[in-house]
Amino acid sequence: MSQSHAQQDISPGMVWLFAIATGLIVANLYYAQTLIGPISRATGLDPGAAGLIVTLTQIGYCLGLLFIVPLGDLLENRRLIFIALLTTAVALLAASFTRSAPLFLLAAFCIGLGSVAAQIVVPFAAHMARPEKRGQTVGKVMSGLLMGIMLARPVSSLVADALSWHAIFVISAVGTTALAFLLRARLPQRQPDSGLHYFALLGSMWQLLKTTPILRRRAAYQACMFGAFSLFWTCVSLELTGPRFELSQTGVAIFALVGVAGAIASPIAGRRADQGKSRSTTAIALSLGALAFAMPLLIHSSRLVDLGVLVLTSIVLDMGVSANLVTGQRAIFALPAEIRSRLNGLYMALFFMGGALGSSLGGWMFAAHGWSGVLWAGLAFPLTALCVFATE
């Protein structure tokens, strides 16, 4: 992209397109999260291994962040996004039609791998925005991404209840294909000028990680928060549909939909970070994460009260995760433009590793120690982040 082109500010319509696109793409990672029960039964997956459905999607996403997203600093971005989205659509179709646990897990891995297109879109938006508007633009695009994460769970539950769990994957495959062609038609070409070959580019990422302390610290905070987030949302549907609450998939959908209220923290955190209040915002976000798990551990009453506490837990946890993500993202995108795709890939990969750990640990804890075991494991994540934060 030429310098003159880069100075023109991104249009509001294009910001909306980026925000909706990232939301739709990243939602693919979460459709299975509230459907672990029916998918496990249909594919014959052992209950103790049910967390693998989410874990393998996140591992695929992590590997894509480390090995595909850096290509955004090397290859023409529009074509890279197009190919990644078509790969995702094929994997979604495969997931919808298979009845084999190994094949479903392979498809889940490939869904994660292709969905990294969202993290090529985010730096693309940052490149198209004027420097003085870059924080606002990235904040709006990230809001779309967060809404995609939070809405994916209730949408998949509602579709599963109305049709079947297969249907959400078919619908998403069609939508992802349509999005691939829309972005190819609407996005400008962007050919980076890095001057590096692929392996030098990958090698430079280790150097960036070693020499960028803000990246390491922000990734550590968000890895802990996202581990707690993934653990909670992997297991809460199993608890809600179990003998204690006996909710239907529609009930789980309504529960997850209420949790979306946590997204309100995203623009508030962005505004506070713009005012130079990143440190206090981080402390508040991490404390919200710990409070979320402490509430259901401390409050035990009737079925209705316990359900209300879980609803509050989901909102408070989503607020903490959203606020911490936006604060971290703003810090990362303040660093030089020519390394932005690699920094973003590293940041996202590191914290998604925390998410993969959380979802796999959650499935095992639920099977071995029940819901209280899940809550204690979840509490350990934000407490670890707060201990790291204390050294800042």
From TrEMBL:
A Pfam family per the record: MFS_1
Domain named Major facilitator superfamily (MFS) profile: residues: 14-392
Cited SUPFAM superfamilies: MFS general substrate transporter
InterPro entries, per the entry: MFS (IPR011701), MFS_dom (IPR020846), MFS_trans_sf (IPR036259)
Transmembrane segment boundaries: 12-30, 50-68, 80-97, 103-126, 138-156, 162-183, 219-240, 252-270, 282-301, 307-326, 346-367, 373-391
Coiled coil: none
Key words of the record: Membrane, Transmembrane, Transmembrane helix
Protein name listed in UniProt: MFS family arabinose efflux permease
Biological source species: Duganella violaceipulchra
Species lineage: Bacteria, Pseudomonadati, Pseudomonadota, Betaproteobacteria, Burkholderiales
